Protein 1
Amino acid sequence: MNNTLIKQLEERIQAKSLLLHPYYQAWQAGELTIEDLQIYAEQYYFFEANFPRYLSAIHSKCEDREVRQSILDNLWDEEHGDYNHRAMWLDFCAGLGLDKSKVEYSEIMPSTQNLLDTYSNTCDNGTFQEGLAVMYAYEAQVPEIALDKMNGLKEFYGLDNPSSLKFFEVHSILDEDHSDKEAEAIANTSDDCGSEVEMALQSALEAWWGFLDGMEQKRQTLMHAAD
């Protein structure tokens, strides 16, 4: 097991933690407007809607049976049943006053498209280890992020409807297991491709920061327009 590689990945994640980004710090401080949250919800929807496809691509090329089974577990959690994670996100959107069709047919911002392209390119064209790395880059951060978002939504925006917060509640717990299994799989299968795994993870971290840069730029534009 390559624990050194996992430590290096964790250091990269900590250095580029999404909770350090100005947009998430504004969320934590209650400085976002409802319109800011609505725009975020519309843009993040596209990642959530495509997430199962990324997992499927990794699963299809993985030669290791045990790792493949853990990917399948993750995919099942994401997409099985009518009340899947995409549906949970749309419930959050509804809590913000958004219509489902408006969310599904929103215009994709360039920074959002870059995030989607980064994940699809790595998961479709990279090794399964590289695919796991881009998943780990995000899912390792999700539990803490989900709790912070949920607390901010309750405290600053009065959003306490259980269905509106279900997505965050589920991910604050479930992604601990997902990311632990991803780390284990990477550690056990990446002795010959550690540098490629690191670069894949870094590309995902950069894409996520770029996504939030897009959110922050949009927020600043709306603030200046209101002055």
Note: The chain has eleven helices and no strands.
Protein 2
Amino acid sequence: MEVSIRDYEAYLYDHYKSHGIDSSLFMKLVEEVGEVAEVLNKRDGRKASDHEDLKSQLANELVDVIHYAFAIASLNDIDLNNAILEKDRQASVKYKHDRNLEQFMSER
């Protein structure tokens, strides 16, 4: 099963609409970003690791980051699908990329 951006936004809105507070969700997001940094530090040898499955840990922490970022967007009625496409369009012009995300997707 694949999850679309719109489905995930709707799911998170439904989950947080009655008790989601942007500032508390943002604090969770920051916490999760720190946990991503911790796993990367272990992976790169800057922090001790006891034969942990760092790839799995990294995946889990990145999912947590995405979760809270999407929840904040959803509660603020931000369409991340359109925001991603527009931001990529602007970046591809700014950084003179050969193609943007929309072009990449249409080629596939």
Note: The chain has two domains: 1-77, 78-108.
Protein 3
Amino acid sequence: MPFVRRYLPLFTVAFAIACFYLYGLNRVGVLGPDEPRYAAIGRAMAHTGDFITPKLWGAAWFEKPPLLYWLTAAGAWAGLSPEGAGRLPVALLSLLFLIAAFELLRREFGFEAAAITVTLLATSAGWITYSSLCLTDLPLAVSFSLAVLIALPLVQERCCAGAHENIRLLAIGVCIGLAMLAKGLVPVVLAAPLIWFLRGLWRKWWLAIAACLVVAAPWYVAVYVANGYPFIQEFFLKHHFERLYSAALQHVQPWYYYVPILLAGLFPWTPLLGLFGLRDQRWDERRRFLAAVFVFGFVFFSFSLNKLPGYLLPLLPSVFALIGACFETKSLAELSRLWLLPCALLIGAIPLLAQILPQALAAGRLSSVAIRGISATELFYVVLPVAAVLVARRSWIGWLLALCVVAGGIYLKTVAYPLLDRQVSARGLWREIRTPDAAICDNWISRDWAYGLAFYRGAPYPACNSGHYPFELRSAAHGPPVLQAHH
């Protein structure tokens, strides 16, 4: 019975989270400019059998390394839908990481700290979002964060010497190698805190370096042999170094950009950052290491001229691990309800997000115009988490709030995804216009729509100045492009 009382709530929440992650992956078409391109490259790899040179609609494309493309190709081979081929492998990778992270953290900080960390991470807005999209951010975050968690015993200098220490260093190298296959040199830079905190083991660094090279080097060598200097120029010089200082990549943001992005990524658990200010908070070497991983990465990304929200994703597991570590020696039931009440209020706001999300993504900004009256169903989702905090037993509150996030998230997908499919994704527009496909040209539509339509069409629409076409697609304010007669 003690085993059941301890593990049954975790298994229940874990099952609910898994169902949530896998629900609705095909209910909305590809989104934004990146997802259709990454999914198209992976699909092309599956069709051509060329797993060395990424190709976007027939042309070599060196912006990102191949790990995500390989996952997407596997999904295409499995006969998944165009959207599911790229999204399902990412969702499964996220779920597998959460299981591994729980076990690694349980050995370090105990059952309750590990359960809290993984549950908060799995139900945070940032992790949920990137676990359901065909983007490179989640594979990078998974690989790099595994390296960080595997390093924790070595940092504390209490790991068994000899073979066990060597195995951990080899595993760290493998994870960094996979991260390099996910996003190039980014994990090498983010690994600077690992190098510092493991400096006492510098004589054995060669194990991690060798493992990293065995995993990552074959593709880098093969793609260079196949393509030569254009790969170096595009992949390293442009998409690594120019990203730090050049405005040409069109992602320029102010230095404080990641402050609100972090707060939003931790939603609805953002108020728990206040736990770091508690007087009884311990700061041993493991916690300082996790804090250093986050701070270094946050500062590095903030100094880069080009910024995107997903860049912070590899730092979220360290933040939540620090939050969870607060409960290494005490139970969540000992925490005052006042700490969880703000989280409950944020969870209750999820139905409102379901109303405004499609219009916000279509317009590129938040707007209160889309908010209408709250229905009885939405009122239920608003009240439920607050009631859980005020009424439920303290030992149940955390689990109930996690289930409220899952329930609210499923509601959001059910309500918002059909609207996103019509207003933001190119899939709905493609279904309307594909009949006269050969007679349509592109009259400067935005790249979000251009890449999305090209994904479903199999190739971009030709520019209108390249020939004579009876119809044209033209951008119309913040909504979908308009099909009209070409003059």
Note: Residues 394-423 form the longest helix (30 residues).
